[in-house]
Automatic annotation (TrEMBL):
Protein name per the record: Neurotransmitter-gated ion-channel transmembrane domain-containing protein
Taxonomic superkingdom: Eukaryota
Coiled-coil boundaries: none
A cellular component term, taken from the record's GO annotations: membrane
Organism of origin: Aldrovandia affinis
Record-level GO BP terms: monoatomic ion transport
Transmembrane segments: 79-101
Entry annotated with the keyword Mitochondrion: no
Residues annotated as domain Neurotransmitter-gated ion-channel transmembrane: 3-96
KW Membrane (keyword) present: yes
Gene3D superfamilies tied to this protein: Neurotransmitter-gated ion-channel transmembrane domain
Sorted UniProt keywords: Membrane, Transmembrane, Transmembrane helix
Length: 119
């Protein structure tokens, strides 16, 4: 059992050394060729990391889009608030002005000789 474990560690060490040697050139081509020679586990790990990175990138894009819609909603909310506040203010002023300018007519009932206005 331990002899197989040594072989496995030896294989991984050799693979990691190949990858490390490939990175010394700092070229993407060397990295791709060294990953192509790596074991299946390393290739699966790289594929999983790519998948996770793509998922996070899509999630960030979705969140930024959501933030833009929240900003649009805030602007619409503020505009509606200002319009309603102005409408309520003008309506209140109108109600008070109607009460102020509302005067009883001097002759409310035509043909009635009595004056209803105060003296």
């Amino acid at each position: 059992m331990f002899s197989r474990l040594r072989e496995r560690d030896g294989l991984m060490k050799a693979t990691l050394e190949k990858i490390r040697n490939g990175l010394e050139g700092d070229t993407a081509q060397n990295l791709c060729s060294s990953l192509a020679q790596a074991s299946e586990d390393v290739q699966q790990c790289v594929a999983s990391c790519k998948h996770i990175a793509e998922g996070i990138r899509q999630q960030n894009h979705f969140q930024s889009e959501n933030e833009e819609w929240f900003l649009v909603a805030r602007v619409i909310d503020r505009v509606c608030f200002l319009v309603m506040a102005l409408l309520f203010f003008l309506g209140t002023i109108g109600i008070f002005l109607m009460g102020h300018f509302n005067q009883a007519p001097s002759m409310p009932f035509p043909g009635d000789p009595k004056k209803y206005l105060p003296k």
